[in-house]
Structures are given as C-alpha cells and as structure tokens.
Amino acid sequence: MATIKDIAQAAGVSLATVSRVINNGPKVGKDTRQRVKLIMEEMGYRPNANARALVTKRSASLGVVLAELHDPFFAMLAHGVETVTRKNNVQILLSAGSIEKETELRAIEILLEHRVEAMVVHSKALDDKTLIDFSKQVPGFVLINRFIPEIANRCVWLDNVTGGRLMAEHAINQGHKKLAVISSQYRIDDPNHRLEGIVNATEAAKLTLPESMIEYATPDQEGGELAMQNLLATGAEFTAVLAYNDAMASGAMTMLQDHGIAVPEQVSVMGYDDVLLAKYCRPKLTTLRYPIEMMAAKAAELALKYAAGAKPEEGLTFKYTPTIVKRDSVVRV
Amino acid sequence: MATIKDIAQAAGVSLATVSRVINNGPKVGKDTRQRVKLIMEEMGYRPNANARALVTKRSASLGVVLAELHDPFFAMLAHGVETVTRKNNVQILLSAGSIEKETELRAIEILLEHRVEAMVVHSKALDDKTLIDFSKQVPGFVLINRFIPEIANRCVWLDNVTGGRLMAEHAINQGHKKLAVISSQYRIDDPNHRLEGIVNATEAAKLTLPESMIEYATPDQEGGELAMQNLLATGAEFTAVLAYNDAMASGAMTMLQDHGIAVPEQVSVMGYDDVLLAKYCRPKLTTLRYPIEMMAAKAAELALKYAAGAKPEEGLTFKYTPTIVKRDSVVRV
DNA sequence: TTGTATGCGTTATCAT
DNA sequence: ATGATAACGCATACAA
Asked: By CB neighbour count within 10 A (0-12 exposed, 13-18 middle, 19+ buried), where does B7 fall?
C-alpha cells in the first residue's frame, strides 16, 4: 500500500507537503495541492490510521464494551452509540464482556491497548474500584447502566428502583391486589433494584408480596415460561404478573395461554425494556420504556466530550427514569 | 501512559529486553523476566496496539461492515463474527453502511485506513466491480449475503431463489392455491431473488400469481401492516401470504387479526429469516431459517484464514440454503 | 510556499 | 542473555 513517501516521490515534493495536503493544511500552493491530490488518487493512497494515532496520540475511535451482541437490547445500545460516532467521524471498536469478571476486564484492557479516546462501558461483573481506577486512566471513560457515586458524572443509568415502583403502582392502580413477580436469577443490581421498587410500592399499598410469589429464572423467554410454570404449579393465586423484562413477560404470557388462562382478561402481564418484541407479541405488552438507545447516544457524546478535554462536572449524574407504555396486556380488575 | 522505554529505564535494562518479555521472547534470563514483569505490573504498562500494528504490519483486528446495528438480523451477524474473533484474539472494528453507496464505500475505506487484516462486508449498494477491486487489495476480504461470480470463493451467501421456492412449495403442498406476496420495496437482490423463487414454484404448480397479489413496502412490521392493508383493500382473495421477512409477516398477521381474519385458520402466513420474533409472536411463525449467525462465523473464519495467507480456492463458494421451520402460522387447507 | 529533521512506541536485526 | 539501532508511516516544529 502506497505511503506518504511514495506520493511525495511521485509528486516530486517533500513528505511535509503531502502531509499538509492530506490534512488540508494551510500553507501549500494551489497547484501543488492539485497535483498531489491527483497522484494520491491515482496511487490509491490511504492514510495509515495506526501511524497517525501513534504520532498524534489521538485515535479517533471509541471503544464499546457490552455483554452479548445478539441480545436486541445491546444491539440498540450499540446503535445509539453509532449514531453519534458517525456524526463525529469516530470509529467504533467493539469488545464483548459477557458479564464475566475476567472477560469484562480483558475487554476494557484491549480497548485501552488500542488507545481509544473514549469508552462506553457496560459492566456488571467488575467491582466499583476497578472501574473507578479505569476512569482515572481514561479521560473519556463513561459507564452505561450503572451508577457509582464516586464517578457519578461518568454514569448514564436508569433508575430501576423507580422503575420497579412504577410497575407495581400501575398494577395496583388498576385494582390488582394479588401480584406475582418473575425476576432474573442473576444477582446483579438490575433485578435487585427493580424488585426493591416493587416491594416498596406493595408495602406502601399495604399489600403483601410473599417470597412464594416471586420466581427467578434466566432473563429470556424460556426463563419466563419456566417461571410461570412454577408459579402455576404452586397453585398460587394472582391477577397480575410483573416480569423482569419483555422477553420473560412474553414467555409468561405464552405459558399462561397454553394453560388456557386468558391474558389480560384473567391475568395481566407487565414487561420491562420496551424492546421491539413488546409491540410484536400478542396481546401487545404493557411495559416500561427503557430509552437505551437515547442513553447510549448520551453516553457516547459524554465520552467524546470528556475525551476532548471537558471536565466532568462535580455532583452531576445522568439518570433516566423509565415511563410506562400502556398497551394491551394489563386491564383494570 | 507508561511506555516500553519507561519500563526499560525503571528496570535498568534495554528496550529490546522489555520487548522480549512482553512477547514472551525466548532469549531472556529468568530473573530479568521476573523483574521486568513486576515493574510492568507496577507501572500499569499496556502495549500500544497502534505502534505494534505499525511495525508488524498486522493489526489483529477484523473489520465488519453492516447496515444498521439495531436490526436484530445484523445483531446476529455481528455476534456470529464475534464468536470467532474472540477465539482468535482479534478485535472487531465496526462500520455501518446503511445500504447507501457513499456510506458503504466510506465504511470500507475507514476500515482500510485502520489496516484491518480481515474484513466481513455486508454490502448491497456497491457494485460488483468496486467490491472486486477491494478484494484485490485486502487478502482477508469476504462478502456476506452476496454472491459475485468473479470472487465466489470470498462469498458467504444464502440461496434466496431456492428460499423463495421452498416457501411457495410449502404453501402449495399445504393445499393453498391463492397466494399473496408481501415483498420489500427496496430493489436489491434479496427480494428479487426470493420473488423469483416464488414465481418459479407457482408456475411449476400451474398457479397464477398476478402482479396485483404482490405488495411492496418497507421490510419492517409497519411495512407488513401497510402491505396487508393494501391487499385487503383491493378485495383480493388469498389463503396464504408469503412475506419477505418475519417482521413483515408479523405486521401482516396483526393487520389480518385487526380485520377479524383468523391466522392461520382463514389465512396462513409465512415469514423468512427466523429471527427471535418468529418464536415470540402469536401464532408462532412458520418461516425459513436463515442461519446468519453461522454464516457470519464462517465468513469471519474465512476472512481470517485468507488474511493469514491461505489462498482462496478456485471455483469454491459458500452457499447456504434456508430450511423451513414449521410452527403455527400455516395450516393445510 | 516548501523542505528537513525529529519523534511517536514498538519490533526486529545485528552485534556483543 | 542482553543491548544498540534501524525501521514502520505520519505530523509537526523549525529552517529556508
């Protein structure tokens, strides 16, 4: 592949001049610029991003750490990031961390080795201290879906406690008194927080939510089916089910319908996330909107801004609150 | 950030020695190795991938060009690639090309500038010649979802003509004689090929498929709804609908149900792709399995192999054929 | 306006 | 086993 040197030689000018042409530098004759450009075209010259990054110490790239790409949720996240990187002519470097400590760590390290300027990190397995340390090394370090007080101004996150509360309140407002909960079996913050919000709301409404009305399973459709199966097996009575996410809600609905229980006529179901699926499934899912795409875009902007030298404001954080999307899976009782 | 030089200084050895330690070079004393490693640890040393890429001319990265990240289909594609890059300690560089000539071109160029070793490209807007040219520049250049005879051995693609035929044949075998088709309005190869297969099958079965029974819309749920609405508005009669993809099929089902037409009792519906949605929607979609994740993994492997110097075998290509997944949206009539 | 020279962080070649 | 040194491709301060 042709280098700047080859171009200089072919054009009969110096390296510096070519470099200036490439970067639209100011001090270069109009005709020389023309000629050099032509030759670059002819020789199919492409600047070497690595060499450039080495000397300028700026890589024009943003690293993204996420769990699993095939999860639609992370696809939305990635897309949110992409909208802003594209606008800024910044490249995306992807690193998957599958919610395992070692992998997440390695994912971040790899991005660091590539000297990405900014970083949007979705980490659930790493501890606060590790993340705080990284944020000190990388000016453009931003966390998504996580809140760490010490670096609050680098956190773009969803208030899941409020989310849980909103879910439960909505069900309660619709007259439901016997609630069941289908949660994720992974003991990370998100399910804990959502559950906390649900419990708060039930207590405030003087309802009881016995442990037996809470089922845990994998946070996907199969998990939702399984959890509902278990719930039904215990013979428990409930008129509304609050699921950890839309996939579990969908699974739960399927299982209910398979048992001849009409949704929402006999049992109401609520999801969380508002992914595509929520609109596609029948009945359409009443759920909580998790504006992950918007949040991811925000995180990317922030990361780029910090990377460019902006100082994170003290005492600031980027908290989003989910909102209820009323569709057809919940009815008044 | 500490460099190899800093480490050398701190350890009282030369650059060369440190470099050897980093790369697990052979000729270095056991104790020196220990000491250097310790110091690297202490100083938080991280090799600079850019510098390394510059001198070794190998970037340990694979570029991916795809259309839209938030499309679950591309999320699967990305995931397929990721499974093999992870295994090979190769980094993913993402570039979105939104099915526009200019953007796709720019996406590839950017990856080229980063000197990615391998490339998995999903391009629909670029012409054959351009792609062939690129493949000559980049040894590890592989196309996914596209077939170009001149570089057949770099193409991992799905036989959409056969796919279309299988769809139609399945419907016909189930006794359906009046078919309707919902296709994509984008005049790229995929819908054309699928339609071609459908037409072939209908002709072989001595059925007619008038142009009025084919509706075109955007390849998403809204498009499916719209297309079905149009179809119903014309008063056309049909007992089976073949959709361009699962999203359109889902939209079509919704619209049918909204019009009080039972699926599959009154009208059967078939999708294409077998994305998550196909299992989630009600009735579960009978569709064609498009093993995109597997294909993407194959493409990535191939790209890496070619990048490593393996010569593309002449006359070879990587064609996949979709298979029918029978679920609940099609019945015998 | 143009050219020269230096250095970015690393690997690799050649000495020692 | 270890060190000195020349690249790699580019940007840039300094000269001319």
From this structure: buried
